[in-house]
């Protein structure tokens, strides 16, 4: 020991705000400058370096007394020094034990996905390295985009709850909580009218947007063709500089099936008659753009302005056609036709069906005892696995999966005008993107036409961040063994932005993980066809969770799950306004309270109700035009 006598060591506890992690480890600081030695004064040494020798006989009574007290003080000092050193050693052993426990918990969180059946789910590459979530958040916080530190405390609590198995799955987590949801059954396939002869002329449609906007445009065009007694030319899809996909109708949907299925409703042809193909439609005034038609135009608009053009020129070309037909008021039979087109007439081509069937089978671990037969056959046709009677077993429960549509691409993020924790760099990046893609929005922003990012957040108008999404899922009760299919691509911030999600839920996969390079190669350069694969996997999932209820993709998927799901396919629609009120308390709220509030907020959005007036039949098919209610 460097000191033979008693030593004072000042130990300073730095407090909760500076602790090393959120599991309660204290950071102890030893102040070496405050260490003082109280050493007994001994006689000065002689020139040889040896202490002077004292004769026992020459010692006075007083010196004998001093020797006795010095000896006693030395023994006490030694005992104090031994006691202090023993305390220090014990303290360090205790800290070491905490770190060992922490390492053990991390290994439990980070263990890879387990193999079930013949397929092993491969987690995302970001899971390959074991990283403590708090350390990862702090590391990212020191990087260029410190967005990950916003919910560090809650994420640490979530990781602890998942590791310890404290998060219990509620009984209705994987099921529709309201039994009357099963009272609605599909019935838009029934018809009680004569086929349209299409004698008014020909309607051509070039739909814009991605696959979801194009699908809505096709269904609206079918309804308009019937309304005007016109013949529909097989729709075409406009090339988008955003989606950069040259896919046409026949690359995604079965053309012949579409034509044959709609024969009792309208006449559909693959191309214009030869005598009309050479006409200059723009010069004739037969070309109608989106700017010429108001959004949600009523049937009276088409009867007044479009039908005369048909009678005059025999053809009308809708260019950039999209959401240009109102949801109400629409005659019952016409509304039913829109449902029939969406839910029955549009079927994916065999190569998409086959790849989609692989996604479903691998997410279900090749278990044929799960799934909804009608929905599977609609989605993937002859590639659907047949259900063997009595095949469902307790093992089948492990094969269920959650599909998640994380709407956090840069276009959504930039257009929202919200902030996501990335500081000045994020602000400059999103401003530059808006300047290129949303110039009109930039002008309105400069004029102060929008609330502040904080106000937008509190009103639930901001996209859910990946960190908020993973907290929502953990709060709802999904455990860390849950298999999650992640739809979409190009998440803003890349894989680093997904680290919280992949760390807490290691069994998270995408279509790129589930399909081999050979299997996915035919779709790689076609974003719409890749989106069709996501559509199949999400629609067939046991639970579908969306992060933005306004997303066209999420709306269509939710509608299909209602129409074909028999009231047994729940969809999680977060109330972002309620969640924002919960997340704002992330620095103080306890995990149990957080769980209770999140579950209440999400359950309130699972209500079963008929389609509200003016809302899309594609998203809300529970209405007399699409479904029948059996009381």
CATH domain fold name of the domain at 350-386 and 398-408 and 463-631: Rossmann fold
- Specify the number of helices: 25
Give me the secondary-structure category: alpha/beta
Main sheet properties: 6 strands, parallel
Secondary structure: helix percent: 40-55%
Query: What Rg do the Cα atoms give?
Result: 35 Å
Beta percentage is: 5-15%
Mass-distribution shape: globular
CATH first level of the domain at 350-386 and 398-408 and 463-631: Alpha Beta
Query: How many β-strand runs?
Result: 17
Estimate the mean pLDDT confidence.
Answer: 79
Report on the architecture of this protein.
The protein has 631 residues and is of the alpha/beta class. Among the domains are: 144 residues, 3-Layer(aba) Sandwich (Rossmann fold); 217 residues, Rossmann fold (3-Layer(aba) Sandwich), CATH 3.40.50; 35 residues. The protein is 43% helix and 9% strand. The protein has 25 helices and 17 strands. β10, α9 and β11 form a beta-alpha-beta unit. α1 crosses α3 and α4 crosses α10.
Write a brief caption for the model.
This protein is an alpha/beta fold.
Helices and strands in order, then pairings?
Blueprint: E1 7-8, E2 11-13, E3 28-30, E4 36-37, H1 61-110, H2 133-141, H3 152-164, E5 184-186, E6 202-207, H4 211-227, E7 231-233, E8 236-237, H5 249-252, H6 255-261, E9 268-269, H7 274-277, H8 281-284, E10 287-289, H9 299-313, E11 315-321, H10 332-345, H11 350-363, H12 373-380, E12 402-405, H13 410-416, H14 423-437, H15 439-446, H16 453-458, H17 466-476, E13 484-487, H18 494-497, H19 499-504, E14 508-509, H20 511-514, H21 517-520, H22 527-539, E15 543-546, H23 552-564, E16 571-572, H24 576-583, H25 591-603, E17 627-629
Parallel strand pairs: 6-7, 6-8, 6-11, 7-9, 10-11, 12-13, 12-15, 13-14, 15-16
Antiparallel strand pairs: 1-4, 2-3, 5-17
């Amino acid at each position: 020991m460097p000191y033979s006598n008693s030593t004072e060591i000042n130990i300073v506890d730095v407090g909760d705000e500076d602790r090393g992690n959120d599991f309660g480890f204290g950071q102890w600081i030893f102040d070496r400058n405050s260490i003082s030695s109280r050493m007994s004064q001994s006689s000065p040494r002689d020139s040889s370096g040896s202490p002077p020798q004292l004769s026992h006989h020459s010692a006075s009574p007083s010196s004998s007394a001093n020797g006795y007290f010095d000896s006693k003080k030395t023994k006490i000092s030694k005992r104090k020094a031994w006691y202090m050193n023993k305390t220090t050693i014990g303290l360090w052993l205790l800290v070491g034990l905490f770190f060992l426990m922490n390492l053990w918990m991390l290994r439990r969180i980070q263990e890879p996905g387990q193999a079930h059946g013949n397929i092993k789910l491969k987690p995302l590459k970001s899971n390959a390295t074991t990283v403590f979530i708090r350390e990862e958040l702090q590391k990212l916080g020191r990087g260029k985009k410190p967005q990950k530190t916003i919910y560090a405390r809650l994420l640490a609590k979530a990781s602890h709850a998942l590791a310890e198995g404290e998060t219990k799955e509620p009984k209705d987590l994987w099921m529709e909580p309201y039994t009357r949801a099963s009272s609605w059954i599909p019935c838009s396939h029934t018809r009680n009218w004569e086929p349209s002869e299409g004698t008014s002329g020909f309607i051509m449609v070039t739909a814009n947007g991605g696959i979801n906007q194009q699908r809505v445009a096709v269904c609206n065009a079918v309804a308009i063709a019937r309304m005007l007694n016109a013949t529909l030319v097989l729709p075409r899809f406009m090339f988008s500089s955003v989606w950069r996909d040259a896919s046409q109708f026949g690359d995604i949907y079965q053309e012949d099936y579409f034509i044959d299925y709609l024969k009792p409703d309208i006449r559909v042809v693959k191309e214009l008659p030869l005598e009309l193909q050479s006409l200059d439609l723009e010069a004739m005034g037969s070309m109608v753009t989106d700017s010429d038609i108001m959004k949600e135009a009523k049937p009276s608009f088409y009867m007044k302005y479009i039908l005369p053009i048909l009678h005059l020129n025999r053809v009308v070309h809708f260019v950039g056609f999209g959401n240009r037909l109102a949801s109400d008021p629409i005659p019952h039979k016409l509304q039913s036709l829109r449902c029939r087109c969406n839910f029955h007439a549009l079927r994916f081509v065999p190569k998409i069906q086959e790849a989609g069937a692989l996604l479903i089978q691998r997410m279900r671990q090749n278990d044929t005892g799960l799934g909804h037969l009608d929905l599977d056959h609609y989605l993937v046709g002859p590639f659907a696995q047949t259900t063997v009677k009595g095949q469902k077993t307790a093992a089948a429960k492990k094969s269920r999966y959650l599909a998640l549509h994380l709407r956090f691409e840069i276009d959504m993020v930039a257009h929202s005008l919200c902030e996501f924790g990335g500081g000045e760099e994020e602000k400059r990046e999103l401003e530059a993107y808006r300047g290129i893609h949303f110039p009109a929005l930039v002008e309105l922003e400069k004029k102060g036409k929008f609330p502040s990012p904080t106000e937008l957040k509190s009103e639930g108008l901001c996209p859910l961040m990946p960190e908020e999404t993973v907290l929502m899922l953990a709060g709802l009760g999904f455990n860390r063994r849950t298999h999650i299919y992640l739809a979409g691509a190009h998440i803003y911030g890349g894989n680093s932005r997904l680290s919280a999600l992949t760390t807490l839920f290691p069994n998270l996969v995408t279509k790129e993980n589930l399909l081999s390079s050979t299997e996915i190669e035919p779709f790689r350069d076609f974003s719409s066809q890749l989106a069709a694969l996501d559509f199949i996997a999400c629609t067939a999932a046991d639970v579908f969770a969306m992060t933005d209820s306004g997303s066209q993709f999420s709306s269509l998927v939710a509608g299909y799950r209602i129409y074909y799901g028999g009231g047994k396919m729940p969809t999680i629609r977060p109330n972002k306004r309620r969640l924002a009120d919960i997340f704002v308390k992330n620095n103080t709220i306890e995990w149990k309270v957080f769980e209770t509030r999140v579950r209440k907020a999400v359950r309130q959005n699972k209500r079963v109700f008929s389609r509200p007036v003016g809302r899309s039949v594609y998203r809300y098919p529970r209405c007399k035009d699409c479904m029948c209610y059996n009381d």
